[in-house]
Amino acid sequence: VAEAGKTIYYLSESSGTFNVAKMNSDGSNPTPVTSFKTHPVRFLTASKNGTLCFGYDGEIYTHAGGKTQKVNITLNADTRTTQVRNVPVSGGIGGMKVSPNGKEVAFLYRGDVFVTNADGNTTKQVTKTPQAETDITWHADGRMLMYASERGGKWGIYKSEISRKDEPYFFASTLIKESPVVVTAVNNLNPQLSPDGKELAFVENFNTLKILNLAAKSERVLINQKEWLSWGDGGHDVEWSPDSKWLLLSYAEQEIGNGEVGIVSADGKTKLTNISKNGFGDGGPKWMMGGKMIMWFSDRDGLSSKANSGASQRDVYGMFLTQDAWDLFRLNKEDATLQKEIKEKAEKADTTKKAGSKKDSVVIEWAGLDQRKSRLTIHSSSLSDALVDKDGENLYYLSRFERGINLWTTNLRTRETKILAPLGANNAGNMQWDKEGKKIFLQTDAGIARIEATSGKVDRISISGEMQLDIAAEREIMFEHVVRRTRDIFYKNDFHGIQWKELSDNYRKYLPSIGNGYEFSEMLSEIEMLSEMLGELNVSHCGASYSNPAPAGDATASLGIFFDYKHEGNGVRIDEVIAGGPLDKAGYNVKPGTVILAIDGDTITPDMDWVRLLNRKAGRNVLLSLDENGKSRELVVKPISGGEENQLLYKRWVKRNADEVDKLSNGQLGYIHIPGMNDGAYRMALEEAMGKYAGRKALVVDTRNNGGGDLVADLAMWLSGKRFIQYSNDREVANYEPTFRWNKPTISLANEANYSDGHCYAFTYQYLKIGKLVGMPVPGTCSFAGWEQLQDGQTRWGTVPMGARMMDGSGRYLENYQTEPDIKLMNEFDKVIKGKDQQLETAVAELMKEVK
User: Fold this and answer.
1) Cβ atoms 2, 8 nearer than 8 A
2) What is the mean pLDDT of each run of 10 residues along the chain (852 residues)?
3) 237 phi and psi, to 5 degrees?
4) Measured between alpha carbons, how far apart are the two ends of the chain, in Å?
5) Residue 735 CB coordination number (10 Å)
6) C-alpha–C-alpha distance, residues 187 and 493, integer Å
7) CA 251/CA 272 separation, integer angstroms
8) CA dihedral (596, 599, 600, 606) positive or negative
């Protein structure tokens, strides 16, 4: 900000933080104005007379006449409001677990554990804590629940038991006793009770799998941190075998990263064994058929994104642990029926009891195990969850085709596949069998449902309850969670030089003053609780937001026009009709110079904020009254949303750039723009480059304003193609290998707005010397995001758990290390407003040197 055009005030790093400084308009004589310590100055503004105003440590300050002083503010508050509210328990539930007898269902709602009657509508609140509980597991007797809870700055495992012996069910109990199970100086979570109720599997410090013998109180380690990488809280799939002797889990082989399915014995004698050995993405393992089969999900056969990190369709795979089970599975329907009859007769005739025999006892024949694997689904799809019945005859799976998620079934012998229950759900998953294996419990966006496996009949389980929610206490717990998790997962041990404990202690004092979720997370509070605190870490992919959209909030629609700001009098004069917009339709013939006099009969006057006439009218018929050189007519159009208009403006900009490159290179160069690092952008890049510009000598790759994603490796490999074989005869050349990669020269553009993977790309393009990089320095934001939804369901926060490091021997992180272009050039304002793109013109001129 400038005072009388002579002095420039700005924020500069000094005294270990950001303070106000000033300098002459020519950049000379930089001088500090403030000297605050600990926290940065924010929101610097200036009045016309040169008085400065800014925020520091949650307060507002002014600076004038060489003096800095705090503004005294007094607010009158209505103290009759309360932070304790009665909240109905209904939608938004999570973590469903069916009781061993199938008569109760435990679930999580807003961080507390509830149990509801599967055959009625009675719902009981089990825990009443502001802290978040997660990972519910039932004891075999149905009278105990275990779960993880974050208390005292760390995760611990607790249990709740029905106190009175004459009360058999949680939902109808009166007294419930809670006590700690595994609460130590470190984090313990992901509890899983064994089916026999004797042992507890849990995860210590996020990456060590342990077993606790409940009677002996002894622990043993099954998997250590070297075998089980974790980026943060939870996220581990662990499931006991029916006989309580084995555990299935998902994990990733070190330095490879692809998901695999592993098995480990509960006694620790058989170490972690990779049983999927696939090389594709495998996960979500489950025991089926009483322990005779292991089921999991894999993207091996499905359609996948062109980009390696994009979404993929999945299939259900089954592995049979014995040759007998495998042979039976492979029989056709007729032979299987006959075999079943013979077996049943033999069992009736055999009156002897085999010593040590036990139902659901798991037998693993390791020899040939990897050969007894089969794809169970007949088609790959967007799978949510799946189950196989106890006889191994039918597969049940949740999948999305076109609209909504439905429950499908496949007869594993005849391969007949059909929809069993048309759910039409937006979100559905977490299917579990009842005790008899005849009914499926399913968690969907509509709550909990119970489905007959034979008929597909759907019964909704009623949840009727409410909870007393202390908003202030919940907010304090969420704050402590953010503090603890940032401490545990932040990628740099030195926290970029920040004393994290002291910093978080300082912000904690503002908690009593927070009045709502917006103040807690973002802009409506001067102290910006989470965002401002996390911002002091000086790292990208970090901050917080709060979302509670109003159903009837403002949403201004657009007519898809540029209008003349110099127009005087009534109406709006059209300067340009945006191609593809509401007015760019066959037969409309709306030309520049046309004046829109009225919208839906309301005359547009010079003193009117006329866009209010388009509020909440996207996609609806709107009547325009037009004046075309003195001729009047009416036109009915459907305005579009602001997002749709932005897409049209983006296409307009790309077309302008492509036309400019075509013109400047005399048709020798192609032009593509990559707006984000995602599958759609990658496909568009390949479509344009390998199709429209296949015959061009070189390619301009524009990534300016790229917001990131995960595409850097795909782009680097695609653009660095080298010709190694020529297909030709003595008369002509047909093509070269590789044909699926760009193997001609390129030049790339990047700027200050490249973010995240947009920065990873700029660095990689230059580091691998694929071509020259043109534009402005790209800020160092190449790192991974770790976003999380907090227990209120509306606050989202995140920080960086994993950074990207250079492989040049320096070990330097790319975070906070900007990439300097080979040709540094700024698009100057006075030229941009006239339609001149200096960076693009320079890139074309530079690349033309290589193709001549």
Assistant:
1) yes
2) 70 87 90 91 90 92 95 78 83 90 96 95 94 96 97 95 97 97 96 97 93 97 81 79 96 76 95 92 95 96 86 95 96 88 80 54 96 97 96 96 92 96 90 95 90 96 90 93 92 93 90 84 52 89 88 94 96 98 97 98 96 97 97 98 97 98 98 96 96 97 97 96 94 91 97 98 98 98 92 91 94 96 97 96 98 82
3) -90, 115
4) 47
5) 13
6) 18
7) 10
8) negative
